Amino acid sequence: MLPLDGSGAETPRCSAKGCRRGATEDLRWRNPRVHDASRVKHWLACPEHADQLADFLARRGFLLEREAI
Ligand SMILES: [Zn+2]
Q1: What residues in the chain have per-residue pLDDT under 70?
Q2: Residues 6 or more apart whose Cβ sits within 8 Å of residue 61
Q3: Disulfide engineering: 49 pairs with which of 1, 11, 16, 38, CB 3.0-4.6 Å?
Q4: Contact assessment for residue 32 and residue 40, using Cβ atoms and an 8 Å cutoff
Q5: Spatial separation of the C-alpha atoms in residues 44 and 16, rounded to whole Å
Q6: Is 63 within 8 Å of 54 (Cβ atoms)?
């Protein structure tokens, strides 16, 4: 656990490489060749990267769902 810094709730950040924007979507995915059915991975995404990341996952058949956060 990271120590609390007193700044309140932590802003979720976009998972895209090099992006430091706040995330607005939670992309849930799983690689069935690596993860069993109970595992769900999360990528958080800003508006700019949500479609790009979702498309990346969808093309590989990994995308489960995306939801606004
Ligand atoms: Zn982003």
Answers
A1: 1-9
A2: 32
A3: 16
A4: no
A5: 8
A6: yes
Q: Please, where are the H alpha helices in the chain?
A: 47-59
Task: Tell me the whole-structure pTM to 2 decimals.
Answer: 0.80
Amino acid, res. 53:
L
Strands 63-68 and 25-29 turn out to be: antiparallel
Q: How far is the CA of 29 from the centre of ligand 1 (A)?
A: 17
pLDDT at 3: 52
Which residues surround the ion ligand 1 when the cut-off is CB under 5 Å?
Answer: 14, 16, 19, 21, 46, 49
Q: Which of 66, 68, 69 is nearest to 29 (CA)?
A: 66
The letter for the amino acid at 49 is: H
Spatial neighbors of 60 by CB under 8 A, at least 6 apart, are 31
